[in-house]
Design a protein that fits this description.
Number of helices: 4
Oligomer: single chain
Shape: elongated
Strand content: under 5%
Number of strands: 0
Bound molecules: protoporphyrin IX containing FE
Helix content: 55-70%
Distance between the termini: 15 Å
Structural class: mainly alpha
Largest sheet: none
Order of helices and strands: HHHH
Length: 192
């Protein structure tokens, strides 16, 4: 595989970079779409947007599974020397939490539509029918998963904001390579 696709000991490769930004944009977009669609007065537009929200949610879940597989098979570059002791210990935990929320938010959304009394099928981008999760349909379960989806989405977006602020701090304050190495990929010239 060409060197610019995979990570090396100091830089991320194209695959990790593309998946990072694609998933980041989708997650933020999904949050905004979710926030807007539940506040609309037109039932028809709300229905269309919820279907779209479900489609992008499933796409995000698929990309995330791909990303986790890639991450497990492709070691991330070591943190630059400028990263201090405390951040060196907390950053991996924050990244693990980011993966956790990015999985839990779409999964809770999927659980929500699976237990909904409305029983509206999910058809990602009108391509196929996504089966529901094997959970019992009830009003109580629907309320539970709606609340879980809400809390997870808001906590997840707060963590994404913190993550973005940390990256900006590295770029503008500490002036190290933490942000730029997630923008420019590794190349054949990089020292391994
Ligand atoms: C990472 C992906 C996702 C994010 C960030 C996200 C975020 C949100 C947000 C912010 C809301 C509005 C909550 C509110 O303000 O009341 C929402 C609502 C909703 N989401 Fe998601 N969501 C995601 C994935 C999914 C998936 C995969 C599904 C279903 C397959 C789904 C189904 C729903 C439904 C049905 C609602 C409306 C809930 C209600 O009527 O109270 N979401 N989502």
């Amino acid at each position: 595989m060409p060197a610019f696709i995979t990570n090396n000991s100091t830089r991320y490769g194209w695959a990790a970079i593309v998946l990072h930004w694609l998933i980041g944009i989708l997650f933020i977009g999904q949050f905004m779409l979710g926030f807007i669609m539940v506040r609309l007065t037109s039932q028809r537009t709300a229905f269309e947007l919820i279907q779209l929200h479900k489609s992008f949610g499933f796409l995000l879940l698929g990309l995330l599974i791909l990303r986790i597989a890639w991450r497990l098979g492709n070691t991330a570059p070591a943190l630059p020397a400028s990263v201090g002791g405390l951040e060196r210990r907390t950053a991996p935990l924050a990244h693990l939490a980011l993966y956790g929320f990015q999985l839990a938010v779409p999964l809770s959304g999927w659980a929500l539509v699976s237990v909904s009394m409305l029983e509206i099928p999910s058809m990602p981008f009108n391509l196929f029918v996504m089966p529901n999760l094997p959970l019992g349909v009830s009003d109580a379960a629907e309320n539970f998963w709606a609340l879980a989806h809400w809390y997870l989405a808001y906590a997840g977006i707060a963590l994404v904001a913190l993550h973005a602020l940390a990256a900006l701090r590295h770029h503008f304050w500490l002036r190290d390579s933490v942000l730029t190495r997630m923008i420019t990929p590794s190349s054949d010239q990089d020292m391994e």
